[in-house]
């Protein structure tokens, strides 16, 4: 039996409004009584203070979806880790495939963001994952290893004691095409084993989330796998009933 507490993190992406957030958060809070998982909501920056307020008194954590790699200064439009930390943010997603692919974030930049998040005492949720053509070419492990190694070489293996990893095959994000539980398990085991080559304790304790079209009807299958410790949930996290069902589907 694993000692890892499952984590289900919502990624609202660029969705919602001040008005729509309240009923969604209230419904999630009210329905979470029975969930064994830790739960987090990663909201757009501007809604984080309000979200934090709405979550007051609940065990649900707040998270951001991105952050600047710089501490402060002339970076118009950017948000720093100290600003996120100021408002009580707990998690920060780094290296989401939409950031890597739409905003050309490199492995090195993602590693810098990871380090910056930790230096502000927040927990990075590091996203890794291959594109469809990379899977078809049989290079999934090469891609995931490259993305992971870039962070390990920047921060060192010990830093992973205070981090979460999300395996998100890019072809499964927002497409309705979920990885099979066997495909997810295979990559999760690969990631854990790669970490174990450097530190078996950290490898055994880090939570590895799966993300990519997790829905209420496939979550328990995916979460039943040994190395799948929860999920990073996009679309389904915008519907309270679906998100709650996913939270309740963890081991
Ligand atoms: C995501 O945004 O990280 C994600 C996994 O999205 P979806 O659940 O919609 O595929």
Corresponding CATH architecture: Alpha-Beta Barrel
The percent of residues in helical segments reads 40-55%
How do the SSEs run, as a string of H and E?
A: EHEHEHEHHEHHEHHEHEH
Tell me, rounded to a whole number, the average pLDDT: 96
Poorly predicted ranges (pLDDT <50, ≥5 residues)? Answer: none
Strand content: 5-15%
- Structural class by SSE content: alpha/beta
Which small compounds were modeled alongside the protein? Answer: phosphoenolpyruvate
Rough outline: globular
Distance between the termini: 10 Å
Biggest sheet strand line-up: 1-2-3-4-5-6-7-8
Describe this structure in words.
- This protein has helices at residues 18-31, 48-54, 81-86, 97-102, 107-119, 132-136, 140-155, 181-196, 200-205, 219-223, 240-248, and strands at 7-11, 38-42, 61-64, 91-94, 123-128, 164-167, 207-211, 230-233.
- The chain is of the alpha/beta class and 251 residues long.
- It has one domain (7-84, 104-248): TIM Barrel, CATH 3.20.20.
- The chain has an eight-stranded parallel barrel, surrounded by five helices.
- Strand 3, helix 3 and strand 4 form a beta-alpha-beta unit.
- The radius of gyration is 17 Å and the shape is globular.
């Amino acid at each position: 039996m694993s000692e890892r507490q499952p984590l289900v993190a919502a990624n609202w992406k660029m969705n919602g409004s001040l008005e729509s957030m309240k009923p969604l958060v209230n419904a999630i809070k009210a329905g979470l009584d029975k969930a064994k998982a830790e739960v987090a909501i990663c909201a757009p920056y501007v809604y984080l203070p309000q979200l934090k307020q709405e979550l007051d008194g609940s065990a649900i954590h707040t998270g951001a979806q991105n952050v600047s790699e710089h501490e402060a200064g002339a970076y118009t439009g950017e948000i720093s880790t100290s600003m996120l930390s100021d408002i009580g943010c707990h998690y920060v997603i780094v290296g989401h495939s939409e950031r890597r692919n739409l905003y050309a974030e490199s492995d090195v930049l993602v590693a810098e963001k990871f380090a910056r998040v930790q230096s502000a005492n927040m927990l990075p949720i590091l996203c890794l994952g291959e594109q469809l053509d990379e899977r078809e070419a049989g290079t999934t492990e090469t891609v995931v290893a490259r993305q992971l190694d870039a962070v390990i070489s920047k921060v060192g293996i010990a830093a992973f004691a205070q981090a979460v990893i999300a395996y998100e095959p890019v072809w499964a994000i927002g497409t309705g095409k979920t990885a099979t539980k066997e495909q997810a398990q295979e990559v999760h085991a690969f990631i854990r084993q790669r970490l174990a080559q450097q530190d078996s304790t950290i490898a055994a304790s880090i939570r590895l989330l799966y993300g990519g079209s997790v829905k209420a009807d496939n979550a328990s299958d995916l979460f039943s796998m040994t190395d799948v410790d929860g999920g990073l949930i996009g679309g389904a996290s915008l519907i309270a009933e679906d998100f709650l069902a996913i939270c309740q589907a963890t081991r």
